[in-house]
């Protein structure tokens, strides 16, 4: 990774840029101020923040949003009976986003490693995520697998009419998202 990349915890002054990058990469309505504030609250535990941002030459080029263990609620897309770790010991890797021009520089990996170290300090033994199978070249699943993640289950139409993202417009499908979420777990 380039020495010019700065990885640090997400702060309020990053919100506008994170929202813009998230909506650019994932689609309009993916993030807004209220959502990001709630996500930031879920990342905080034991005085530590599990959310991180990456800057390259002063420009935001990536972010990782992660919920601390015990700070998130399982939903119908979670399969805890298939996990090797109890849910209360799992963090939730909500989103990893890297700007197109900064992909391939190791930024996604560095963001994940920063979140893992923080989540371990918060008491996590593993992290669960729902990865976007239709990401370019299925890169989301590929990168998480390379990091040690194991596929638990595939969930078609995970993001279609999702109450967490009511105004979401998928960059591939439009307002009726048919993309598949790959539920994966990474043990530490």
Automatic annotation (TrEMBL):
Residues 5-188 form the N-acetyltransferase domain. InterPro entries: Acyl_CoA_acyltransferase, GNAT_dom. It holds the Pfam family Acetyltransf_1. Keywords: Transferase. PROSITE patterns: GNAT. One of its GO terms (molecular function) is acyltransferase activity, transferring groups other than amino-acyl groups. It comes from the Bacteria. The keyword Cytoplasm does not apply. This is GCN5-related N-acetyltransferase. It comes from Shewanella loihica (strain ATCC BAA-1088 / PV-4).
